[in-house]
Specification:
The chain has 286 residues and is an alpha+beta fold. The protein has 2 domains: 2-42; 72-285, Porin (Beta Barrel). It contains 3 helices and 13 strands.
Length: 286
């Protein structure tokens, strides 16, 4: 009996020890969780921003070293010189795959006739330079949708990414009458005129021309010529970091309008304009 009582006591002690041990482990786990939550709660939003910024910079450096153009959205501005004029543009791109980006683009340009030649009879102090025979200034606003396809990634942070770009859409031609300032032989004062058949000889070779009337004249007489356009180009992106867009675009474009466009007197009027261009690109990626 004594042996049985001793055995029963030992079992009770073991049970108590196990219970105490389990309770100790449970309390330790609770303390660890509370401590971890307290440490997490002490992290300020500033710390989160710093960590996020470090991670972003690290990813950019890694991508740059690998030579990969990876982004969600890009905004590109461009200044372009064309074989028949000049212009600017803005492009918004959204990446669909690692190589394809959908682009939305607006160009504002001016087409000049190949026969345009500036002259001045009054000098820089008495009259603005003018163009013999010019009838209208011709501006274009094109709204297009297209795609950029990466042909070759940079390979490294000092490399060049090569892409082919294509887009097409609506073209709006804007004709602004070209005004001259002339000396009125009747009153002996200066006046401004725009082209008409009656004043044709003055525009072509008139000794009474003082100069052009200036950039501000004729905007309230704009005529809209609707049409369409298509454009293709090669784009070379040499930016050191993928977050920044730096590059050159070389391409060709064609525009077609519903009616003929009069730019110069005694010159053939055209509906289709074909031109080459080169553009400097700059912008940002996210």
């Amino acid at each position: 009996m004594l042996f049985n009582a001793f055995s029963h006591l030992i079992c009770q002690l073991k049970s108590i020890s196990v219970k105490k041990l389990s309770l100790t482990v449970l309390l330790s786990m609770i303390v660890v969780v509370i401590t971890a939550q307290d440490t997490t709660s002490r992290k300020s939003p500033k710390d989160d921003k710093k960590n996020s910024r470090r991670q972003k910079v690290s990813n950019l450096i890694k991508q740059a070293e690998e030579g990969l153009l990876i982004y969600q959205k890009q905004s590109v501005f461009g200044i372009q010189g064309r074989t028949n004029g000049y212009g600017v543009f803005y492009e918004l791109g959204r990446m669909k795959t690692n190589r394809k980006t959908a682009i939305y683009r607006i160009d504002i340009t001016e087409i000049k006739h190949l026969k345009e030649e500036k002259s001045s009879t009054g000098g820089i102090f008495f009259g603005n330079p003018f163009i013999y025979g010019k009838i209208n200034n011709f501006y274009q606003v094109t709204l297009g949708f297209g795609q950029q396809h990466i042909l070759g990634q940079k390979g490294n942070k000092n490399g060049v990414a090569v892409s082919v770009v294509g887009n097409a859409g609506l073209a709006l031609g804007l004709l602004r009458p070209y005004y001259l300032e002339i000396l009125d032989p009747v009153g002996g004062t200066n006046k401004t005129i725009k082209y008409s058949e009656a004043d044709r000889l003055i525009f072509l070779d008139g000794p009474s021309i003082v100069g052009s009337a200036g950039f501000g004249k004729g905007w309230n007489e704009l005529k809209v010529k609707p049409g369409g356009f298509a454009k293709t180009a090669l784009r070379f992106d040499y930016g050191r970091f993928n977050e920044v867009v730096s590059g050159i675009e070389i391409g060709l474009s064609v525009e077609f309008y519903g009616s003929k466009i009069p730019i110069m007197a005694d010159q053939k009027e055209k509906q289709m304009f074909f031109q080459g261009y080169i553009a400097l690109l700059f912008g940002r990626r996210k």
